[in-house]
Specification:
Layout: E1 4-7, E2 10-12, E3 18-24, E4 33-39, E5 46-53, E6 56-59, E7 67-72, E8 77-82, E9 91-99, E10 102-105, E11 109-113
């Protein structure tokens, strides 16, 4: 079983930045892959970025060049640095982990980009 706790969401103006954090209840080394998804009202959940290793990272085209996924193995924490935020980035952001063939999800954190 893997528990994921996200933090760092909030309200930010267009062009601003936020950093999301996701702390896992187990060692990250025991997790096969981690990532961030988001779901806007009335839309399906979509992949934002995922990381299998430091050499295997994928970004959605809509966030490439603006968002950066990273992790701190000593803290069992995954991050999502979000820069140049746009109103269309408004969504609930979810942390995910794959371990032993199972998907695990965090509770989600709201990100709202508005002036």
């Amino acid at each position: 079983q893997v528990q994921l706790v996200e933090s760092g969401g909030g309200l930010v103006q267009p062009g601003g930045s936020l950093r999301l954090s996701c702390t896992a209840s187990v060692s990250i080394f025991s997790i096969n892959a981690m990532g961030w998804y988001r779901q806007a009202p009335g839309k399906q959940r979509e992949l934002v970025a995922n990381m299998i290793s430091s050499d295997s990272i994928n970004y959605a085209s809509s966030v490439k060049g603006r968002f950066t996924i990273s992790r701190d193995n000593t803290k069992n924490t995954l991050y999502l640095q979000m820069n140049s935020l746009k109103p269309e980035d408004t969504a609930v952001y979810y942390c995910s982990a794959i371990r032993g063939g199972k998907y695990y999800w965090g509770q989600g954190t709201q990100v709202t980009v508005s002036s």
